[in-house]
């Protein structure tokens, strides 16, 4: 009985230490979550503004192309190539290969965060007829190792995104994605990640980022809104701002995914801490029972010894 009591005490001490660690990790993740949520909200102001500008410039470009087409009907020598001068990031082309940028964490202890993303991405990839139909890019070590273990070749991988990502830090990633699209590595790009809903839940998203086709130019053309003057031209302005807009979309997804990661980590650590506390209660109950049994045995031995002396 004495050995059993000692073992239980050791387990209680070990579980308390584990609970202290998970509790500290929960508080750290919670602090990072609050800070990144605030940063994400501020970033949305910038993202909304740049989207508004791009939408207006694209609408002006559509109107310009319509006028050129109308003029081309009465003038020879104007070719379709002269008319279709849209920026490459706005042009939908025949899809021969689809790119998937998969965002996961570099470490574990984040609950079902990684498994949710990777399971959903595998469902998407299995819908393709051949591996030649898609290209996979991985941000985060967990995703990279997952795909390598399944012999899925990565077109690009990046590890070590900080817990509080900055645009300068991930500039290499977003510029690489835009360059790969321009070079024809893939004809469309989807970013796959966990969207942060709230502190307790997240939702998988596979958002089409390239080409940029979700601009509501018709609404701009039919409404009375601020008119933008482009100098030296609309083309020059679009060529300068469209890559920045594409980069802002991808960076926004990375920041959203990191927010969901911190929320998942905080939830997982809270669950681990609660489990540790419940285990300590159960072990304490076992310890008390073991002590009672030990005391009962000792009293029985004393009574039996006294009875033997009578």
UniProtKB/TrEMBL annotation:
GO terms for cellular component: plasma membrane; proton-transporting ATP synthase complex. GO terms for molecular function: ATP binding; proton-transporting ATP synthase activity, rotational mechanism. Pfam families: ATP-synt (PF00231). Coiled coil: none annotated. It comes from the Bacteria. Transmembrane segments: none annotated. Keywords: ATP synthesis, Cell membrane, CF(1), Hydrogen ion transport, Ion transport, Membrane, Transport. GO terms for biological process: proton motive force-driven plasma membrane ATP synthesis. CDD domains: F1-ATPase_gamma. It is a peripheral membrane protein. It is found in: Cell membrane; Membrane. Produces ATP from ADP in the presence of a proton gradient across the membrane. The gamma chain is believed to be important in regulating ATPase activity and the flow of protons through the CF(0) complex. F-type ATPases have 2 components, CF(1) - the catalytic core - and CF(0) - the membrane proton channel. CF(1) has five subunits: alpha(3), beta(3), gamma(1), delta(1), epsilon(1). CF(0) has three main subunits: a, b and c. Belongs to the ATPase gamma chain family. NCBIfam families: ATPsyn_F1gamma, PRK05621.2-1. This is ATP synthase gamma chain. It comes from Lapidilactobacillus concavus DSM 17758. The lineage of its organism: Bacteria, Bacillati, Bacillota, Bacilli, Lactobacillales. The gene is atpG.
């Amino acid at each position: 009985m004495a050995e059993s009591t000692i073992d239980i005490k050791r387990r209680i001490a070990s579980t308390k230490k584990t609970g202290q660690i998970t509790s500290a990790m929960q508080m750290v993740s919670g602090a990072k979550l609050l800070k990144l949520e605030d940063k994400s909200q501020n970033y949305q102001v910038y993202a909304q503004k740049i989207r508004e500008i791009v939408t207006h410039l694209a609408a002006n470009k559509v109107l310009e192309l319509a006028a050129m087409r109308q003029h081309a009907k009465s003038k020879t020598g104007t070719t379709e190539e002269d008319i279709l001068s849209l920026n490459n990031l706005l042009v939908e082309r025949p899809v021969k290969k689809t790119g998937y940028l998969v965002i996961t964490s570099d470490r574990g202890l984040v609950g079902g965060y990684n498994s949710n993303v990777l399971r959903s991405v595998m469902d998407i990839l299995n819908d393709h007829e051949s591996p030649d139909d898609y290209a996979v890019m991985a941000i985060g070590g967990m995703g990279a190792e997952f795909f390598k273990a399944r012999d899925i070749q990565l077109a690009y991988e990046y590890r070590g995104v900080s817990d509080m990502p900055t645009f300068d830090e991930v500039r290499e990633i977003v510029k690489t994605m835009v360059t790969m699209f321009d070079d024809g590595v893939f004809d469309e790009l989807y970013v796959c990640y966990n969207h942060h809903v709230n502190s307790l839940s997240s939702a998988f998203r596979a958002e089409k980022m390239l080409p940029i086709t979700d601009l509501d130019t018709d609404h701009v053309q039919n409404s009375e809104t601020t008119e933008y003057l482009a100098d030296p031209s609309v083309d020059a302005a679009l060529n300068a701002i469209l890559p920045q807009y594409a980069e802002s979309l991808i960076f926004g997804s990375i920041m959203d995914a990191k927010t969901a990661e911190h929320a998942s980590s905080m939830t997982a650590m809270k669950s681990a801490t609660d489990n540790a506390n419940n285990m300590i209660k159960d072990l304490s109950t076992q310890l008390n029972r073991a002590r009672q049994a030990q005391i009962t045995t000792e009293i029985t031995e004393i009574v039996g010894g006294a009875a033997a002396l009578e």
